[in-house]
Design goal:
Structural class: mainly alpha
Number of domains: 2
Mean pLDDT: 86
Number of strands: 0
Radius of gyration: 31 Å
Largest sheet: none
Number of helices: 3
Strand content: under 5%
Order of helices and strands: HHH
């Protein structure tokens, strides 16, 4: 590589000219890439444990009879997880919290109503 200032021949890996000390190659810049949190692009809100717990409880609340207790717990934890996600947006988990609220609430209330109807029909 020739120096653009004095024309002296330099090695290709030289940063400065060996004759006039002019910079002939700029420093290579390092590019820093911010990586994700390592959880499938943020799909799993590990920073919002209440929302994540609400989600799993809501899924398991689909099991009959256990659904009463798990659904109510999912509903309560979903509300707390949603509040936490609003206060700390970096924690994510709003979708998990809403699933806990909706599915947990429907299953918990639905199974509770079915249980009450069943008990009333047995007592007649």
């Amino acid at each position: 590589m020739y120096c653009p200032k004095c024309g002296k021949l330099n090695d290709d890996n030289n940063f400065r000219c060996i004759s006039c000390n002019t910079i002939i190659q700029p420093l290579q810049q390092t590019v820093h890439v911010q990586t994700s949190d390592g959880t499938l692009g943020g799909l799993i809100p590990y920073k919002n444990a209440k929302a994540l717990s609400a989600y799993y409880l809501a899924v398991f609340s689909l099991i009959p009879f256990l659904g009463i207790f798990l659904g109510i717990a999912a509903f309560i934890l979903g509300l707390k997880g949603l509040k936490f996600a609003k206060e700390h947006p970096e924690s994510k988990g709003k979708a998990h919290a809403w699933i806990g609220i909706l599915v947990g609430g429907i299953c918990g209330l639905g199974y509770l109503i079915l249980t009450v109807i069943f008990i009333i029909s047995l007592s007649k």
